[in-house]
Amino acid sequence: MEQYEIRRNSTIEFDPMCDKANPQKISFEDVSAAAFRIQSGITKTPCVKSHMSSKYGMDIYLKNDFLQNTGSFKERGARNALLLLSPEAKERGVISASLGNHSQGLSYHAKQLKIPATVVMPNVAPIMKIENCRSFGANVIIHGHDMKEAKHHAMMLAKEKNLTYINGYDHPHIMAGQGTVGLEILEQVPDIDALLVPVGGGGLLAGVATAVKHLKPHVLVYGVETEKCPSMEVALMKDEPVSVEIRSTLADGLAVPTVGYNAFATIKPLIDRMISVHEDWIARAILRLVEQEKFVVEGGGAVCVAAIMAGLVPELAGKKVVCILSGGNIDTTILGRCLERGLAAEQRLVKFKVTVSDRPGGIAELCKLIASIGVSIKDIMQERAWVYGDIFSVRVKVVCETRGPEHMNELRSMISNTYREWYFSKESDISNRRPSTDSLDDVSH
Fold it and tell me: Where are its TM segments located (predicted)?
C-alpha cells in the first residue's frame, strides 16, 4: 500500500500512518482479521498456570509469547503488516527501526514472504538481536545511540531508497497483529479477571486492550513499564504522548521515549491502570521465572511478574490474572548480571567488609565462622594498604550466598558480635556497625 510511504513535512520526517494530528484507532474487526491472516505463520503459544500463584495469593497465568519463532510477540504485527503491503511495495522492500524484537520479527517474516528488509538498530541494541537479524537475511544498519536517532535515520533511508517504513509499535496493522495475543488469552483462560501487559511504545497494549475489552469489558487491563522509561505513564498524565528521558534499563525492549500516537489514542479509553516497576524487581522477576518456571525471559517480558512480586497490584488478590511474557531475547552476559542483581535484591547474594587480624589464622577463622552457619563464600579479597590504625589488621571484602533475608541477618548478627569493624553493603548508615575508635570512613564507600 502506498499509504506506508514516508514523505517530508517541512524540515522533519513524517509518517502518514502515525500522524499526531490524525491518530488512527484500531477496531476489534482489525484484530480478528489479523488473527485469520497470520494464523499459518505464527505460533499459538501456551498460557500456563504459574507455580508462583499460591505465594502471591492469586491465580497467575503466564502467556508465553517468548516462544514465538523469533522469541517475542513482535512477529505477529510484523507478519500482518507485511501481508497487507501492495505487490509493488513488497517488491521494493521494507525498512524499520527497532531495539531488536521488531527487527527480528520483521526480518524473519520478510524472509518467509520473500520481501527485502532493512532494519536500523541503535548501538545499545543487544548483540544477540543484531546477529539474529543478520541470520534472517536482513540488511542491518547500526546507527544512533537510542531509538529516536535510529528511527530518524530509518525514515531518511526510506525516503531516499523508496522503501516502505513500518513503525514497530504504532502502525495500525502492527497493533492489530499484536492484539491477536489477547484473543488467544481469552480462549485459553476464558474466566480471566485481569490482564497485565508490558508497555514500551504501546502497540501491544493497544491491540490486546482492543480485543479483550470488546469481548469481555469487565476484564481489568493494566499496562506495566519500567521506572527508567515511564513514557505511557507520563503520556496519560499529560493527556498526550510526550518525550521522556531514557535511562539505562534491564527492560531495553521497552525503552521507547515517546509512545505511539495511534497507540495512545486507542489505549486511553480502554486502560484501567498504568504501573511502573523498579529495576530491582525486574531483576528479581527474571530470576524467579528462571528458578520457578524454568523460563528465560528478557527484562521487558518480565515486568508484569515484577509488578505482582513488588506488591503493586494488591486489588487483584484472589483473582485470575494473566501476565504476558512478551520476549525472551536476552544476551547471555546480561542474563548473568540480571540473575546476580536479582540474588542481591533478595539478599541471597551478600557483600560485606570486615576488619580482622592479619596474624596467621585470622582470615581462616573468618571463613570457618561463615561456614558454620551454612553461608557459602563466592569471592574474597584482602585489603591492607588502606587500613588505618592497627598495622596488624587486614580488611576483608566477602561476597557470599545466603538462603535469604533471615539467613543474611543471622550472618550479620554473628559478624557484628565477633568483630569490631564491619559494614554490609546497601545499609544506608554505617552507624549500624559497632562504634570504633579507628577510622573506617572508606569502608562505607
Answer: none
pTM confidence score: 0.85
Burial of residue 401 (number of CB atoms within 10 Å: 0-12, 13-18, 19+): middle
Q: How far apart are CA 90 and CA 365, in angstroms?
A: 72
In order along its 445 residues, the chain shows pLDDT tens digits of 444 434 444 334 678 888 888 999 999 999 999 999 999 999 999 999 999 999 999 999 999 999 999 999 999 999 999 999 999 999 999 999 987 899 999 999 999 999 999 999 988 887 888 888 999 999 999 999 877 888 899 999 999 999 999 999 999 999 999 999 999 999 999 999 999 999 999 999 999 999 999 999 999 999 999 999 999 999 999 999 999 988 888 898 898 889 999 999 999 999 999 999 999 999 999 999 999 999 999 999 999 999 999 999 999 999 999 999 999 998 888 899 889 989 998 999 999 999 999 889 999 999 999 999 999 999 999 887 777 767 788 999 999 999 999 999 999 999 999 998 899 987 433 333 333 333 333 333 3
CA distance 330 to 100: 10
Query: Contact 278/312 with Cβ under 8 angstroms?
Result: no
Q: What gap in Å lies between CA 295 and CA 71, rounded to an integer?
A: 12
